[in-house]
Design goal:
The protein is of the alpha/beta class. It has helices at residues 2-13, 16-20, 25-35, 37-52, 56-62, 111-127, 148-161, 181-195, 219-234, 251-262, 285-293, 311-314, 354-362, 370-373, 376-390, 396-421, 425-444, and strands at 67-76, 82-93, 99-106, 133-140, 171-175, 243-247, 266-272, 275-278, 307-309, 321-324, 343-345, 366-368. Among the domains are: 66-198, Leucine Dehydrogenase, chain A, domain 1 (Rossmann fold); 219-373, 3-Layer(aba) Sandwich (Rossmann fold). The strands form 2 sheets. It has a 7-stranded mixed β-sheet with strand order 9-8-7-6-10-11-12, sandwiched between helices. The chain has a 5-stranded mixed β-sheet with strand order 1-2-4-3-5. Strand 7 and strand 8 form a beta hairpin. Helix 1 (2-13) packs parallel to helix 3 (25-35), helix 15 (376-390) crosses helix 16 and helix 16 (396-421) packs across helix 17 (425-444). The longest helix has 26 residues, at 396-421.
Protein backbone atom coordinates (compact mmCIF):
# COMPACT_ATOMS: atom_id res chain seq x y z
CA UNK A 1 0.00 0.00 0.00
CA UNK A 2 2.78 2.41 0.98
CA UNK A 3 4.77 1.41 -2.12
CA UNK A 4 1.78 2.17 -4.36
CA UNK A 5 1.28 5.56 -2.70
CA UNK A 6 4.91 6.46 -3.31
CA UNK A 7 4.59 5.43 -6.95
CA UNK A 8 1.58 7.72 -7.35
CA UNK A 9 3.60 10.60 -5.88
CA UNK A 10 6.38 9.86 -8.35
CA UNK A 11 3.93 10.28 -11.25
CA UNK A 12 3.32 13.86 -10.15
CA UNK A 13 7.01 14.69 -9.83
CA UNK A 14 8.79 12.77 -12.59
CA UNK A 15 8.81 12.89 -16.38
CA UNK A 16 6.73 10.05 -17.85
CA UNK A 17 9.81 8.27 -19.20
CA UNK A 18 11.37 8.15 -15.75
CA UNK A 19 8.16 7.04 -14.04
CA UNK A 20 7.82 4.21 -16.54
CA UNK A 21 11.41 3.09 -15.96
CA UNK A 22 11.81 -0.25 -14.22
CA UNK A 23 13.59 1.08 -11.15
CA UNK A 24 12.65 1.03 -7.49
CA UNK A 25 10.94 3.87 -5.66
CA UNK A 26 14.10 4.34 -3.56
CA UNK A 27 16.21 4.87 -6.67
CA UNK A 28 13.63 7.29 -8.02
CA UNK A 29 13.75 9.24 -4.77
CA UNK A 30 17.53 9.49 -5.18
CA UNK A 31 17.02 10.70 -8.74
CA UNK A 32 14.55 13.31 -7.47
CA UNK A 33 17.21 14.63 -5.12
CA UNK A 34 19.60 14.81 -8.10
CA UNK A 35 17.18 16.46 -10.52
CA UNK A 36 15.66 19.01 -8.15
CA UNK A 37 17.42 22.12 -9.54
CA UNK A 38 18.01 23.78 -6.16
CA UNK A 39 19.41 20.59 -4.62
CA UNK A 40 21.55 20.17 -7.73
CA UNK A 41 22.92 23.71 -7.42
CA UNK A 42 23.78 23.17 -3.75
CA UNK A 43 25.42 19.84 -4.56
CA UNK A 44 27.60 21.58 -7.13
CA UNK A 45 28.71 24.05 -4.42
CA UNK A 46 29.57 21.15 -2.07
CA UNK A 47 31.67 19.44 -4.74
CA UNK A 48 33.65 22.58 -5.56
CA UNK A 49 33.97 23.67 -1.93
CA UNK A 50 35.65 20.37 -1.08
CA UNK A 51 37.93 20.61 -4.12
CA UNK A 52 39.13 24.13 -3.23
CA UNK A 53 39.08 23.82 0.57
CA UNK A 54 36.47 26.57 0.92
CA UNK A 55 35.81 27.98 4.37
CA UNK A 56 32.70 26.27 5.76
CA UNK A 57 31.09 29.59 6.74
CA UNK A 58 31.46 30.88 3.18
CA UNK A 59 29.93 27.66 1.86
CA UNK A 60 26.92 28.11 4.15
CA UNK A 61 26.59 31.70 2.96
CA UNK A 62 26.61 30.70 -0.71
CA UNK A 63 24.14 27.82 -0.36
CA UNK A 64 21.29 30.07 0.69
CA UNK A 65 19.53 32.83 -1.21
CA UNK A 66 19.30 36.39 0.07
CA UNK A 67 15.63 36.94 -0.74
CA UNK A 68 12.72 34.97 -2.18
CA UNK A 69 9.44 36.59 -3.13
CA UNK A 70 6.27 34.63 -4.00
CA UNK A 71 3.37 36.64 -5.40
CA UNK A 72 -0.21 35.95 -6.46
CA UNK A 73 -1.18 37.42 -9.81
CA UNK A 74 -4.96 37.74 -10.28
CA UNK A 75 -5.88 38.31 -13.93
CA UNK A 76 -9.28 38.95 -15.45
CA UNK A 77 -9.43 36.80 -18.56
CA UNK A 78 -11.06 37.85 -21.83
CA UNK A 79 -14.12 35.69 -21.06
CA UNK A 80 -14.69 37.52 -17.77
CA UNK A 81 -13.40 34.75 -15.49
CA UNK A 82 -10.68 35.34 -12.88
CA UNK A 83 -7.50 33.28 -12.88
CA UNK A 84 -4.77 33.55 -10.26
CA UNK A 85 -1.22 32.72 -11.28
CA UNK A 86 1.82 32.35 -9.02
CA UNK A 87 5.02 34.31 -9.63
CA UNK A 88 8.51 34.41 -8.12
CA UNK A 89 11.56 36.64 -7.89
CA UNK A 90 14.70 35.42 -6.14
CA UNK A 91 17.97 37.19 -5.41
CA UNK A 92 20.76 34.77 -4.58
CA UNK A 93 23.60 37.24 -4.11
CA UNK A 94 24.08 40.99 -4.42
CA UNK A 95 27.52 40.93 -2.80
CA UNK A 96 29.27 42.01 -6.02
CA UNK A 97 26.52 44.27 -7.38
CA UNK A 98 22.82 44.46 -8.32
CA UNK A 99 21.01 41.22 -9.03
CA UNK A 100 20.82 40.18 -12.69
CA UNK A 101 18.69 37.45 -14.18
CA UNK A 102 15.86 36.60 -16.52
CA UNK A 103 12.14 36.06 -16.09
CA UNK A 104 10.57 32.92 -17.52
CA UNK A 105 6.90 32.17 -18.19
CA UNK A 106 6.39 28.39 -18.13
CA UNK A 107 3.81 25.95 -16.74
CA UNK A 108 6.31 24.08 -14.54
CA UNK A 109 8.07 27.07 -12.97
CA UNK A 110 8.51 26.64 -9.21
CA UNK A 111 10.46 28.26 -6.40
CA UNK A 112 13.27 25.68 -6.27
CA UNK A 113 13.88 26.07 -10.00
CA UNK A 114 14.04 29.86 -9.70
CA UNK A 115 16.41 29.62 -6.71
CA UNK A 116 18.76 27.37 -8.69
CA UNK A 117 18.68 29.65 -11.71
CA UNK A 118 19.50 32.63 -9.48
CA UNK A 119 22.51 30.77 -8.07
CA UNK A 120 23.78 29.94 -11.56
CA UNK A 121 23.40 33.61 -12.53
CA UNK A 122 25.65 34.54 -9.60
CA UNK A 123 28.35 32.22 -10.88
CA UNK A 124 28.05 33.49 -14.46
CA UNK A 125 28.46 37.11 -13.47
CA UNK A 126 31.35 36.31 -11.16
CA UNK A 127 33.10 34.11 -13.73
CA UNK A 128 32.97 36.92 -16.31
CA UNK A 129 34.05 39.36 -13.56
CA UNK A 130 30.97 41.55 -14.09
CA UNK A 131 29.95 43.85 -11.19
CA UNK A 132 26.60 42.07 -10.83
CA UNK A 133 24.98 39.45 -8.63
CA UNK A 134 22.57 36.64 -9.41
CA UNK A 135 18.77 36.77 -9.54
CA UNK A 136 15.92 35.11 -11.40
CA UNK A 137 12.16 35.28 -11.76
CA UNK A 138 9.27 33.37 -13.20
CA UNK A 139 5.53 32.93 -13.48
CA UNK A 140 3.82 29.54 -13.50
CA UNK A 141 1.81 29.90 -16.71
CA UNK A 142 1.61 28.54 -20.24
CA UNK A 143 1.77 31.79 -22.25
CA UNK A 144 0.61 30.02 -25.41
CA UNK A 145 -2.83 29.70 -23.81
CA UNK A 146 -3.13 33.46 -23.24
CA UNK A 147 -4.21 36.15 -25.68
CA UNK A 148 -1.84 39.07 -26.18
CA UNK A 149 -4.08 41.23 -23.96
CA UNK A 150 -4.10 38.62 -21.18
CA UNK A 151 -0.33 38.24 -21.45
CA UNK A 152 0.14 42.00 -21.12
CA UNK A 153 -2.13 42.15 -18.05
CA UNK A 154 -0.23 39.24 -16.50
CA UNK A 155 3.14 40.90 -17.15
CA UNK A 156 2.10 44.28 -15.80
CA UNK A 157 0.49 42.83 -12.65
CA UNK A 158 3.53 40.63 -12.00
CA UNK A 159 5.76 43.69 -12.39
CA UNK A 160 3.69 45.71 -9.94
CA UNK A 161 3.90 42.86 -7.41
CA UNK A 162 7.72 42.68 -7.56
CA UNK A 163 8.28 46.42 -8.10
CA UNK A 164 9.98 47.00 -4.74
CA UNK A 165 12.34 44.10 -5.49
CA UNK A 166 13.69 45.39 -8.80
CA UNK A 167 15.41 48.52 -10.12
CA UNK A 168 18.62 49.60 -11.90
CA UNK A 169 20.52 49.65 -8.60
CA UNK A 170 18.78 46.59 -7.09
CA UNK A 171 17.90 43.85 -9.55
CA UNK A 172 17.67 44.01 -13.34
CA UNK A 173 15.44 41.40 -15.06
CA UNK A 174 15.85 40.17 -18.64
CA UNK A 175 14.15 37.75 -21.06
CA UNK A 176 14.28 34.00 -20.48
CA UNK A 177 12.11 31.03 -21.49
CA UNK A 178 8.92 32.24 -23.24
CA UNK A 179 9.61 35.92 -22.60
CA UNK A 180 10.82 38.42 -25.20
CA UNK A 181 11.56 42.12 -25.91
CA UNK A 182 7.84 42.99 -25.93
CA UNK A 183 7.39 41.58 -22.42
CA UNK A 184 10.47 43.51 -21.28
CA UNK A 185 8.90 46.66 -22.76
CA UNK A 186 5.75 46.14 -20.69
CA UNK A 187 7.88 45.62 -17.56
CA UNK A 188 9.85 48.79 -18.26
CA UNK A 189 6.68 50.81 -18.89
CA UNK A 190 4.92 49.54 -15.75
CA UNK A 191 7.96 50.30 -13.59
CA UNK A 192 8.40 53.73 -15.21
CA UNK A 193 4.73 54.65 -14.65
CA UNK A 194 5.13 53.88 -10.95
CA UNK A 195 8.30 56.01 -10.76
CA UNK A 196 6.90 58.90 -12.80
CA UNK A 197 9.74 58.91 -15.32
CA UNK A 198 11.24 56.66 -17.99
CA UNK A 199 13.64 54.13 -16.42
CA UNK A 200 15.10 52.09 -19.30
CA UNK A 201 17.79 50.56 -17.06
CA UNK A 202 15.25 48.54 -15.05
CA UNK A 203 15.36 45.67 -17.59
CA UNK A 204 17.58 44.48 -20.40
CA UNK A 205 16.60 42.68 -23.56
CA UNK A 206 14.23 45.53 -24.46
CA UNK A 207 13.37 46.62 -28.00
CA UNK A 208 16.12 48.82 -29.44
CA UNK A 209 13.66 51.71 -29.86
CA UNK A 210 13.29 52.11 -26.06
CA UNK A 211 16.87 51.58 -24.92
CA UNK A 212 17.66 48.03 -25.96
CA UNK A 213 21.01 47.00 -27.37
CA UNK A 214 21.90 45.66 -30.79
CA UNK A 215 23.18 42.11 -30.54
CA UNK A 216 21.24 41.27 -27.38
CA UNK A 217 18.81 38.80 -28.94
CA UNK A 218 21.57 36.71 -30.53
CA UNK A 219 24.05 37.22 -27.67
CA UNK A 220 23.75 33.79 -26.03
CA UNK A 221 24.11 32.00 -29.35
CA UNK A 222 27.04 34.19 -30.37
CA UNK A 223 28.69 33.57 -27.01
CA UNK A 224 28.28 29.82 -27.43
CA UNK A 225 30.07 30.07 -30.76
CA UNK A 226 32.98 32.11 -29.36
CA UNK A 227 33.50 29.61 -26.51
CA UNK A 228 33.20 26.58 -28.82
CA UNK A 229 35.66 28.14 -31.27
CA UNK A 230 38.13 28.82 -28.44
CA UNK A 231 37.85 25.22 -27.23
CA UNK A 232 38.35 23.80 -30.73
CA UNK A 233 41.49 25.92 -31.12
CA UNK A 234 42.83 24.54 -27.83
CA UNK A 235 42.28 20.89 -28.71
CA UNK A 236 43.18 21.28 -32.42
CA UNK A 237 39.72 20.30 -33.64
CA UNK A 238 38.47 21.57 -37.00
CA UNK A 239 34.87 22.69 -36.33
CA UNK A 240 33.45 22.41 -39.85
CA UNK A 241 33.54 18.62 -40.40
CA UNK A 242 31.96 17.87 -37.02
CA UNK A 243 28.41 16.47 -36.71
CA UNK A 244 26.40 18.76 -34.42
CA UNK A 245 23.15 18.02 -32.53
CA UNK A 246 21.12 20.78 -30.86
CA UNK A 247 18.31 20.15 -28.36
CA UNK A 248 16.13 23.27 -28.26
CA UNK A 249 15.28 25.56 -31.16
CA UNK A 250 14.19 28.74 -29.41
CA UNK A 251 16.23 31.89 -28.98
CA UNK A 252 19.39 30.09 -27.83
CA UNK A 253 19.22 26.91 -29.88
CA UNK A 254 17.93 28.69 -32.98
CA UNK A 255 20.65 31.33 -32.87
CA UNK A 256 23.56 28.95 -32.34
CA UNK A 257 22.15 26.74 -35.11
CA UNK A 258 21.99 29.73 -37.47
CA UNK A 259 25.50 30.89 -36.60
CA UNK A 260 27.04 27.44 -37.04
CA UNK A 261 25.08 26.81 -40.27
CA UNK A 262 26.30 30.10 -41.73
CA UNK A 263 29.86 29.10 -40.80
CA UNK A 264 29.46 25.97 -42.91
CA UNK A 265 28.99 23.48 -40.07
CA UNK A 266 26.87 20.34 -40.45
CA UNK A 267 23.92 20.21 -38.05
CA UNK A 268 22.41 16.74 -38.18
CA UNK A 269 19.57 17.16 -35.65
CA UNK A 270 17.57 19.88 -33.88
CA UNK A 271 14.47 19.74 -31.69
CA UNK A 272 11.79 21.92 -30.13
CA UNK A 273 9.11 21.11 -27.53
CA UNK A 274 7.35 18.78 -30.02
CA UNK A 275 10.41 16.69 -30.79
CA UNK A 276 12.98 17.05 -33.52
CA UNK A 277 14.37 16.22 -36.93
CA UNK A 278 17.44 14.20 -37.89
CA UNK A 279 19.27 13.94 -41.20
CA UNK A 280 22.65 12.22 -41.48
CA UNK A 281 23.71 14.55 -44.29
CA UNK A 282 22.72 17.69 -42.41
CA UNK A 283 19.61 19.87 -42.04
CA UNK A 284 18.69 23.06 -43.88
CA UNK A 285 18.61 25.39 -40.87
CA UNK A 286 17.36 28.41 -42.81
CA UNK A 287 14.25 26.47 -43.88
CA UNK A 288 13.64 25.21 -40.36
CA UNK A 289 14.01 28.68 -38.82
CA UNK A 290 11.50 30.07 -41.32
CA UNK A 291 9.13 27.21 -40.44
CA UNK A 292 9.55 27.91 -36.71
CA UNK A 293 9.01 31.64 -37.13
CA UNK A 294 5.65 30.91 -38.77
CA UNK A 295 4.57 29.32 -35.43
CA UNK A 296 4.98 25.74 -36.62
CA UNK A 297 6.35 22.75 -34.73
CA UNK A 298 9.38 20.89 -36.07
CA UNK A 299 7.54 17.56 -35.90
CA UNK A 300 5.22 18.77 -38.67
CA UNK A 301 8.00 19.77 -41.08
CA UNK A 302 8.27 17.57 -44.15
CA UNK A 303 11.80 17.35 -45.55
CA UNK A 304 13.43 14.81 -47.84
CA UNK A 305 15.56 12.44 -45.81
CA UNK A 306 14.47 13.98 -42.50
CA UNK A 307 13.48 11.61 -39.70
CA UNK A 308 11.52 12.43 -36.55
CA UNK A 309 13.39 12.04 -33.25
CA UNK A 310 12.14 12.61 -29.70
CA UNK A 311 13.71 15.09 -27.28
CA UNK A 312 14.97 12.17 -25.19
CA UNK A 313 16.50 10.33 -28.14
CA UNK A 314 18.10 13.39 -29.69
CA UNK A 315 20.49 13.54 -26.73
CA UNK A 316 21.85 10.06 -27.44
CA UNK A 317 22.39 10.41 -31.18
CA UNK A 318 25.95 9.71 -32.31
CA UNK A 319 27.59 13.08 -32.99
CA UNK A 320 30.72 15.09 -32.33
CA UNK A 321 29.21 18.11 -30.56
CA UNK A 322 26.00 18.02 -28.50
CA UNK A 323 24.38 21.33 -27.54
CA UNK A 324 21.57 20.94 -24.97
CA UNK A 325 19.86 24.32 -25.31
CA UNK A 326 16.40 23.63 -23.88
CA UNK A 327 15.88 23.33 -20.10
CA UNK A 328 17.63 21.95 -17.04
CA UNK A 329 18.07 18.28 -16.03
CA UNK A 330 18.24 16.77 -19.52
CA UNK A 331 21.41 14.70 -19.04
CA UNK A 332 21.15 12.61 -15.88
CA UNK A 333 22.46 9.35 -14.48
CA UNK A 334 19.65 7.59 -16.34
CA UNK A 335 20.94 8.52 -19.83
CA UNK A 336 24.55 9.71 -19.39
CA UNK A 337 26.00 6.31 -20.34
CA UNK A 338 24.22 6.55 -23.70
CA UNK A 339 25.57 10.00 -24.57
CA UNK A 340 27.75 9.52 -27.66
CA UNK A 341 29.74 12.66 -28.48
CA UNK A 342 33.12 14.35 -27.97
CA UNK A 343 31.94 17.70 -26.62
CA UNK A 344 28.86 18.90 -24.72
CA UNK A 345 28.33 22.65 -25.01
CA UNK A 346 25.68 23.67 -22.46
CA UNK A 347 23.35 26.20 -24.03
CA UNK A 348 20.67 25.73 -21.35
CA UNK A 349 21.03 26.41 -17.64
CA UNK A 350 21.74 23.27 -15.62
CA UNK A 351 21.14 20.68 -18.37
CA UNK A 352 23.58 18.20 -16.79
CA UNK A 353 23.22 16.83 -13.26
CA UNK A 354 26.20 16.18 -10.93
CA UNK A 355 25.61 12.43 -11.19
CA UNK A 356 25.79 12.63 -14.96
CA UNK A 357 28.96 14.74 -14.80
CA UNK A 358 30.85 11.88 -13.15
CA UNK A 359 29.80 9.46 -15.88
CA UNK A 360 30.61 11.86 -18.72
CA UNK A 361 34.05 12.59 -17.27
CA UNK A 362 34.85 8.87 -17.13
CA UNK A 363 33.76 8.57 -20.76
CA UNK A 364 36.22 11.31 -21.71
CA UNK A 365 33.54 13.74 -22.92
CA UNK A 366 34.48 17.41 -22.60
CA UNK A 367 31.63 19.35 -20.95
CA UNK A 368 31.71 23.14 -21.38
CA UNK A 369 29.57 24.28 -18.43
CA UNK A 370 26.56 26.55 -18.70
CA UNK A 371 28.02 29.33 -16.56
CA UNK A 372 30.74 29.77 -19.18
CA UNK A 373 29.16 28.52 -22.41
CA UNK A 374 25.88 30.44 -22.31
CA UNK A 375 27.09 33.55 -20.49
CA UNK A 376 26.89 35.66 -23.66
CA UNK A 377 23.35 36.71 -22.78
CA UNK A 378 24.19 38.20 -19.40
CA UNK A 379 27.34 39.75 -20.85
CA UNK A 380 25.46 41.72 -23.51
CA UNK A 381 22.73 42.48 -20.96
CA UNK A 382 25.48 44.16 -18.95
CA UNK A 383 26.48 46.13 -22.05
CA UNK A 384 22.85 47.23 -22.47
CA UNK A 385 22.68 48.26 -18.82
CA UNK A 386 25.83 50.38 -19.26
CA UNK A 387 24.47 51.96 -22.42
CA UNK A 388 21.18 52.85 -20.71
CA UNK A 389 22.95 54.46 -17.76
CA UNK A 390 25.16 56.58 -20.02
CA UNK A 391 22.55 57.13 -22.77
CA UNK A 392 25.23 56.24 -25.30
CA UNK A 393 24.76 53.23 -27.55
CA UNK A 394 27.34 51.03 -29.22
CA UNK A 395 27.49 49.58 -32.73
CA UNK A 396 27.14 45.83 -33.28
CA UNK A 397 30.83 45.45 -34.14
CA UNK A 398 31.81 46.80 -30.73
CA UNK A 399 29.23 44.62 -28.96
CA UNK A 400 30.53 41.43 -30.58
CA UNK A 401 34.19 42.34 -30.09
CA UNK A 402 33.70 43.18 -26.40
CA UNK A 403 31.68 39.98 -25.97
CA UNK A 404 34.36 37.87 -27.58
CA UNK A 405 37.12 39.49 -25.50
CA UNK A 406 35.34 38.80 -22.21
CA UNK A 407 34.26 35.23 -23.03
CA UNK A 408 37.56 34.12 -24.55
CA UNK A 409 39.44 35.60 -21.58
CA UNK A 410 37.14 33.73 -19.17
CA UNK A 411 37.59 30.53 -21.19
CA UNK A 412 41.39 30.87 -21.07
CA UNK A 413 41.27 31.26 -17.27
CA UNK A 414 39.01 28.23 -16.92
CA UNK A 415 40.96 26.04 -19.33
CA UNK A 416 44.31 26.86 -17.73
CA UNK A 417 43.00 26.22 -14.20
CA UNK A 418 41.44 22.92 -15.28
CA UNK A 419 44.85 21.77 -16.52
CA UNK A 420 46.63 23.08 -13.43
CA UNK A 421 44.23 21.37 -11.00
CA UNK A 422 43.51 18.33 -13.19
CA UNK A 423 39.83 19.21 -12.93
CA UNK A 424 36.89 19.40 -15.31
CA UNK A 425 35.98 22.67 -16.98
CA UNK A 426 32.91 22.86 -14.73
CA UNK A 427 34.92 22.51 -11.54
CA UNK A 428 37.47 25.07 -12.77
CA UNK A 429 34.68 27.51 -13.70
CA UNK A 430 33.10 27.18 -10.28
CA UNK A 431 36.42 27.54 -8.51
CA UNK A 432 37.05 30.88 -10.22
CA UNK A 433 33.50 32.15 -9.70
CA UNK A 434 33.24 31.04 -6.07
CA UNK A 435 36.70 32.33 -5.15
CA UNK A 436 35.70 35.81 -6.32
CA UNK A 437 32.47 35.64 -4.31
CA UNK A 438 34.35 34.36 -1.26
CA UNK A 439 36.83 37.23 -1.45
CA UNK A 440 34.01 39.78 -1.75
CA UNK A 441 32.23 38.29 1.28
CA UNK A 442 35.49 38.31 3.25
CA UNK A 443 36.17 41.95 2.38
CA UNK A 444 32.64 43.18 3.10
CA UNK A 445 32.18 41.07 6.22
CA UNK A 446 28.87 39.90 7.68
CA UNK A 447 26.50 42.66 8.82
CA UNK A 448 26.15 43.54 11.68
Amino acid sequence: MLENKKKEQMKIIYPEALVAADVSVTVKEELLMETNPFEMAKKQIDIVAEKMGLNNNIKKFLKRVERSLIVSIPIKMNDGTLKIFEGYRVQHSTVRGPGKGGIRFAPNVNLDEVKALAIWMTWKCSLLNLPLGGAKGGVCVDPRKLSKEELERLTRRYTSEIINFIGPDKDIPAPDVNTNPQIMAWIMDTYSMHKGRAVPGVVTGKPIEIGGSVGRESATGMGLFFVLEALCNKINLDLNPQDIVIQGFGNVGGNIAKILYEKGCKIIAVSDISGGLYAKGGLNIDQLLKWRDESNYLKDFQGKGYKFVSNEDILTLKCDILIPAAIENQITRSNANRINCKIILEGANGPTTPGADNILEKKGIIVVPDILANAGGVCVSYFEYIQDIHSYFWKLERINQELKNILVSAFEDVYNLSKEKNASLRIASYMIAISRLAKAIELRGIFP
